[in-house]
Amino acid sequence: MKVLDAEFVQGFIRMADDGWKQGWHERNGGNLSYRIKEQEAESVKENFEPKEWQPIGTSVPKLAREYFLVTGSGKYFRNVSIKPEDSVCIIELDDKGENYRIAWGLVNGGRPTSELPSHLMNHEVKMEASGGKHRVIYHAHTTNTIALTFVLPLEDKVFTRELWEMATECPVVFPDGIGVVPWMVPGGRDIAVATSELMKKYDAAIWAHHGMFASGEDFDLTFGLMHTVEKSAEILVKMLSMRPDKLQTITPQNFRDLAVDFHVTLPEEFLYEK
Ligand code: 2HA
Ligand code: ZN
Q1: Could you give the CA distance from residue 69 to residue 54 in angstroms, rounded to a whole number?
Q2: Burial of 21 (0-12, 13-18, 19+ CB in 10 A)
Q3: Closest approach atom of ligand 1 to CA 210
Q4: CA distance linking residue 166 with residue 158, whole number of Å
Q5: Cβ neighbours of residue 148 under 8 Å, at least 6 residues apart?
Q6: Would you say the CB of residue 188 lies under 6 angstroms from ligand 1?
Q7: Dihedral pair phi/psi, residue 124, rounded to 5°
Q8: Ligand nearest to the backbone CA of 74
Q9: How does strand 88-93 pair with strand 67-71?
Q10: Tens-place pLDDT, residues 187-199
């Protein structure tokens, strides 16, 4: 089968396009990766032409020999759907999880995303935590979430609680909460380590003054998570623009009642009295 005909590739392209349409991917902002299933890799392997091995910049031994579909460094989400073979690539990891090589794509040259260390370290953590179910890692420059990192304390418990309060669906969509990474230089191993530490506990992490990372089992769940958090952030930005306080809101006891009916566990650390 041609790579572009595969369902997982079509799903990846659609998600990239959806993110672009949301306004989260100015210029070359953001990146997306998908851990390819064995039978999916098998179905398109006839097209692979492996290039030389390159260092990942970190070590992900549990992902040894896995294949990933990833956006290219410096490539624009805006272009993914019209020239996917120029914008994305399939990479293979070596048997130590220390090097990668391009097997398909980036036909005009280039490298996988500059955030490859963060993507792969998050994949490693989430694969373990989910018993192998999580396959998608998504980084986007979500406008309203970024705006909030200038006015809210950069604490997991503050962001979780404030975002939960803005839309009743939020505690059901991300019951474990959301993490916050303080401002750090992007692209390297340090920010990858800090993010993957938070991803042991959460499915989403905010990068202060930069954007967000989300993890999920498939494209729908991962895009849906990013979309839900960002929508909630938009409501909070609107609310704070109208007045600095709330006349009424969802209370800690409301959240506890919701948890019972929706069969989710909401950690008490987020249900503090203000
Ligand atoms: O330009 O978003 O964080 C890609 C990025 C880097
Ligand atoms: Zn970014």
Answers
A1: 16
A2: exposed
A3: 3
A4: 13
A5: 159, 162, 233, 236, 237
A6: no
A7: -60, -45
A8: 1
A9: antiparallel
A10: 999 999 999 999 9
| Ligand 1 centre distance from Cα of residue 35 (Å) | 19
Asked if residue 162 lies in contact with residue 245, where contact means CB atoms within 8 angstroms, the answer is no
Residue 268 backbone phi and psi in degrees, to 5:
-60, -25
Q: What confidence score (pLDDT) does residue 86 get?
A: 98
**pLDDT for position 194:** 98
Token digits of residue 102: 């391009």
Which helix (H) or strand (E) segment holds residue 165: the answer is helix 156-166
Do 154 and 180 contact (CB within 8 A), yes or no?
Answer: yes
Q: What average pLDDT does range 215-234 have in this prediction?
A: 99
- Tell whether ligand 1 has an atom less than 6 A from the beta carbon of residue 114: yes
In this prediction, residue 83 has a pLDDT band, given cuts at 50, 70 and 90, of very high
112 lines ligand 1 (CB under 6 A): no
Exposed/middle/buried for residue 245 (C-beta within 10 Å: 0-12, 13-18, 19+)? exposed
User: DSSP letter at 87?
Assistant: H
* Ligand 2 mean position, distance from CA 78 (Å): 15
The pair of structure tokens assigned to 122 is 């998050």
Mean pLDDT of 40-54: 98
Identify the band that residue 95 occupies on the pLDDT scale cut at 50, 70 and 90: very high
Tokens at 110, concatenated: 């280039």
